[in-house]
TrEMBL record:
GO terms for molecular function: carboxypeptidase activity; metal ion binding; metallopeptidase activity. One of its GO terms (biological process) is proteolysis. This is Transferrin receptor-like dimerisation domain-containing protein. The keyword NADP does not apply. Its cofactor is Zn(2+). Residues 158-260 form the Transferrin receptor-like dimerisation domain. It comes from Crotalaria pallida (Smooth rattlebox). Belongs to the peptidase M28 family. M28B subfamily. It holds the Pfam family TFR_dimer. Residues 1-21 form the signal peptide. Keywords: Glycoprotein, Hydrolase, Metal-binding, Metalloprotease, Protease, Signal, Zinc.
Amino acid sequence: MNLMGAILLLINMMGSFETNAVLLFASRGSTEWVEENKEILASRAVAYLNVDCAVGGPGFHVLATPQLDELIIKATQQVTDLDNSSQSIYESWTGSGSSPLIGRLGGGGSDYAAFVQHMGIPAADIAFGGAASVWELIALWLADEEFLPFDYLSYAKELEEIEASKGWTTWKKDHLKVREINDRLMMAERAFTDRDGLFGMSWYKHLIYGPSKHNDYGSQSFPGIDDAVKLAKTLHNAESWHRVQHEVWRDSRVIRQASLVLFGQLT
């Protein structure tokens, strides 16, 4: 099956469902489209599902921002592997008891870059011949769950405390409160961005996952720190090591911002 065939199959599979949120299918240059729709994406976009390599060969391969990990695992556990109908995609993916391997979206060479690195929008990129059913479940859950199915451990703890205090039912009836929680979940990833962007690559705003100057396509965690350390080791001067300290401070600040967003202390 080619890429367009997979997309059309996915649209057909989802055609009979009604969701709370809008599902937008698009096939065009992502960077240009994101630049043109920056304002509405910043305030309304929940997640981006990248399908430019959706019909990859055998074996399940996935990259994602961390809050989507559990959602992806859940979807693969519910979809049968087309190459082995006796087990789920998750069972084929993990083999004999190994942990699922989910890479990160740090590189700048794919369509997800504009969403993740420039806008701070959660995203997933799956390459697998039978990915359409997995995409269907993920998209439906993102669009139709009352609370966005993002897994932030600190925020999950807060929700568990609310449930334990029997306040959950009241919250679900309060549509403004539901909206507030979803806004906090949605904006947490945005908090990892910085308007000045990466040093020397200011278009890339995400400070936790992004391309490195030494590897524009590959994924790099804390790319600003990584580049600063490499430069300092080469120059061996006080100025370059001060820059390392500055990059550590910048990353610490956005992590703190994300924490404050999740706890409703920063909007």
